[in-house]
Design goal:
single chain; alpha+beta; 9-stranded antiparallel sheet; 29% helix; 32% strand
Length: 206
């Protein structure tokens, strides 16, 4: 994996409780989305919302609206520096073990916390909403590292993440991922889609 550094820019976004947004511009390779979301989780930063778009030339533009574990504005320069340090490490390696980074996290309760019976995990495929993309819809209780785990399942399946709508509302994650196969085509085969759903469920449960 060649060593390169994504362009990271922090900006204050006032309509959402002064929550900073962090846009990225980078090449859409090497599990980039998983590395970025994993870096946020390792630094105790919560992704409230994200807008992901991949251009035809493989440039990925990702904007994340982030907050602290207590859902306060992530304005501390130390948090930002810690995130950028871990991301730089992750981008500089062929394989980066985020489990070690997660183990060093300062775990704090996030409110509200849903019991699985209150908000059961739902993972489904939508083949009707788009003629060019396969949509993966996920609804589940949010927790640190959730997006990282979903992103790993998508990448491990060899799929391209073209676009995504990521929303966290009162502790519930409501996410939609626009996917294509390795050739950039919509995937409709039943067996690999069933395997993807199962892989995402397993990742969420771990």
């Amino acid at each position: 994996m060649p060593r390169f550094r994504p362009i990271v820019h922090w900006a204050q976004f006032y309509p959402i409780k002064a929550t900073p947004r962090s846009p990225f511009v980078t090449w859409d390779r090497y599990h980039i989305f998983a590395r970025v979301t994993g870096s946020f989780a390792a630094c105790n930063l919560t992704i409230l919302k994200a807008d992901i778009f991949t251009r035809a030339d493989d440039i990925a533009i990702e904007t994340f609206y982030v907050a602290t574990e207590r859902l306060e504005a992530a304005t501390d320069p130390r948090d930002r520096a810690s995130f950028e340090k871990i991301l730089a490490q992750a981008m500089g390696m062929e394989q980066f073990d985020f489990t070690k980074a997660f183990a060093k996290r300062t775990v704090k309760p996030r409110f509200p916390v849903y019991d699985p019976s209150e908000l059961p995990t739902q993972v489904s495929i939508d083949l009707r909403a788009s003629r060019t993309h396969t949509l993966l819809d996920v609804q589940t209780a949010d927790y640190p590292g959730l997006l990282y785990r979903i992103a790993c399942a998508i990448a491990d399946a060899g799929l391209n993440l073209v676009s995504a709508r990521i929303t966290t509302e009162k502790g519930a994650a409501l996410d939609t991922f626009y996917l294509t196969d390795e050739k950039g085509k919509k995937m409709e085969a039943e067996e690999p889609l069933a395997a993807l759903i199962e892989a995402v469920r397993k990742r969420i449960a771990t």
